[in-house]
Amino acid sequence: MTTFPVSGGCLCGNVRYTVSGPAHCVVHCHCSLCRRSYASLVGTGATIDRNQMKIDKGEENLTSFEMPPGIHRQFCRTCGCSLLYYLDELPDIVFYYPATLDGGVHPGHPQGSEHHVHVGSKANWEFFEDSLPRHDEGLDQAALMNNE
Ligand SMILES: [Zn+2]
Ligand SMILES: [Zn+2]
User: Fold this and answer.
1) How large is the average pLDDT for residues 114-127?
2) Are 135 and 119 in contact (CB under 8 A)?
3) Ligand 2 centroid from CA 30, angstroms
């Protein structure tokens, strides 16, 4: 398993971050907003406590975009890489993109806390087959914190 802290960053290297602990959960989101935000059929986010995410370098290079209202998406303004987002209604946690961790390391979420969400709005031509739980919509706060 992954030994924390672990670091990650954007494509151009201007923004670097460190997470100091394992993720609560990982969601693979298939919604239409994530498709446009990441130019990908699925966006993979991990939740951690906000105090476990530290921007080591390039914080001034992070651009914030609010869409929909209450969801703040942060990305590198040089290379466009999405790095994290946070929700006004969940002030204690931050979502980050574990695909941006160095070396493809596992984000440390416990077994059973990885889900497909918003499968009900996936692209018509997306096909995926795995044994992870699927949800037509999103997860509630307890599930995002893996507190169920
Ligand atoms: Zn960048
Ligand atoms: Zn989504």
Assistant:
1) 97
2) yes
3) 6
